[in-house]
Amino acid sequence: MIKDLDSEQKYSRTAYADGPRLLADIGATHARFALETAPGVLRAVRVLKCDDFTGIVPLLHSYLADHAGTRINHGAFALANPISGDMIRMTNRDWQFSTDEVRRELGLNTLLIVNDFTALAMSLPGLSGQDVMQVGGGAPAANAVIGVLGPGTGLGVSGVIPTLDGFVTLGSEGGHVNFAPADEREFAILQFAWKEWPHVSNERLISGPGMEIIYRALAERNGVATAGRSSPDIITGALEERDGLCLEVLECFSGMLGGAAANLAVTLGAFGGVFIGGGIVPRMAEWFATSPFRARFEAKGRFTDYLAQIPTYVIMTPNPAFYGVATILSEHLRGRSGANTLMERVQHLQHELSPAEQRVATLVLEHPRKVLGEPIAEIARLAEVSQPTVIRFCRSLGFLGLADFKLKFASSLTGTIPVRHSQVRVSDSTHDLSAKVIDNTVSAILKFRDQLDVVSIDRAILLLRAANRVEFYAMGNSRVVALDGQHKFFRFRIPTSAYGDSHLFTLAAELLKPGDVVIAISTSGELPELLAAVDTARAAGADVIAITSSKSALAKKASICLAVDHSEDSTTFLSMISRILQLLLIDIMSVGISLAAPEEGEPDARRLMISHLDL
């Protein structure tokens, strides 16, 4: 668990070599900041009121004003808001901003923005018994799902799912599910809220503003004249003044929270426990321990015994979201394989570049997404340099060219999607198996992207552009890929054939000549018939491009190997993901061929064919 700088162990931890990291937990009411100087070490913790600022940039500048001489390269913010894409529009505050523009404004190399309860959920595995207060019975199961919810200005909801190599957090907006009353009194409160909103979510009532609504609703129901009270005043009135109406509000509030926690527990199967965060419940922790919360949590009819096994906790340690957001940032930086440091490399080497290359570097640092998405001609125009200068800039950084630079650069801007594999099981529902198939494929494609051999692809495209004839050899599941390639290449006016029968492609190989190209496709790369046909083709003077495993016999026999090293159990299932990766290589080569300028006398169809590709 992260502790403040006064921790006795603060000097025993190694400081970050690239300087402190900026952490923030920004809610609708308060924004909390800290500098993480080493793993688990915070300093300069400060709380600011959001009402004192017109936007997130003035808020950040106010905090950083005290650290003007400190170089900060990386930052991560937890935000009480759904996070989707670069543009953020806050739900409970009239602020909107571009993540990338804020990153540039602060001069950061990295800026991650995550949902605040995603960050809080990531903090849970690091909490100890001293950081929480258990309410009621139950014991956590090992390696089980954990739920978390917390009332504050809104109601945050998330969860943590253990995996073989860590934890996955849920990006959830579960606070916006419909509020369901459990008795006549809660129904009266719901009716009162309906006067203001046609849709009443849990967040409308199980939150600080919701507590104030409960107070007004119960006052009306009880015939008590009141001007209303703020949620801090209600807590004070109940616990210190023993005001009857305020106590009734807390009873309703804790019961509603118990019902919401129970719903989350049965939805997630949260046998690792349900944790209560946010700023409200810890203020009344001693009273809350004996409140109606736990009784309502277990009041689930046939599922009472189920819920009685699940422990519930109140998070008592201050600023737990700092731990979660720091963990997310560390995982991001550690998992970039150097890609995230690419911005740093550009920044550090900028002064060593030529004046023209420095203009390209400035464009990369100030408008990274534009550089990633635009062709070389537009990049050169925006930087006011020639196209060869753009290439020289990329080579000065150690890349082969712009394509190689963009490939490594892309992941530093799009963030990490964990490369995971989830086994499809017989018991899976259609929803589960659909999600697993899609997630497995997306993860494999991203891993494949990071491992692409751009040099081999360039060589393959050059061979195909000059080919007199192209023949595809494949059997079984890979034959679909060969037919797709034949369909695409034939439209380039290249004589093209596809053979899926071992006897036929052996005969066809004997007729090849120098200048012809064979594209041999095989997941295993060990089929004897295919290997024999490739030997025949090479003996006839033809070149062979192999789409296969890099360590296979076929790869060793080929002129060029385009590696697909995704392993699948093909004894039980078809090689689904490998086939998709093979198809991607066909598409990459097709686009590469279509972008070639036509030689003199060559029809324009090859150059313009990209508009007809089914990509």
TrEMBL record:
Any GO BP: glycolytic process
Main location: cytoplasm
Chemical reaction(s) catalysed: D-glucose + ATP = D-glucose 6-phosphate + ADP + H(+)
SIS domain mapped to chain residues: 460-601
Enzyme Commission code: 2.7.1.2
Pfam family, one: SIS
Compartment(s): Cytoplasm
GO molecular function, one term: ATP binding
Gene3D superfamilies according to UniProt: 3.30.420.40, 3.40.367.20, Glucose-6-phosphate isomerase like protein, domain 1, Winged helix-like DNA-binding domain superfamily/Winged helix DNA-binding domain
Key words, A-Z: ATP-binding, Cytoplasm, DNA-binding, Glycolysis, Kinase, Multifunctional enzyme, Nucleotide-binding, Transcription, Transcription regulation, Transferase
Lineage: superkingdom: Bacteria
Residues in HTH rpiR-type domain copies: 340-416
Entry-linked InterPro entries: ATPase_NBD, Bacterial_glucokinase, Glucokinase, Homeodomain-like_sf, HTH_RpiR, RpiR-like_SIS, SIS_dom, SIS_dom_sf
Enzyme class: transferase
CC terms in the record's Gene Ontology section: cytosol
Family statement drawn from the similarity comment of this UniProt entry: In the N-terminal section; belongs to the bacterial glucokinase family.
The protein, known as: Glucokinase
Gene name tied to this protein: glk
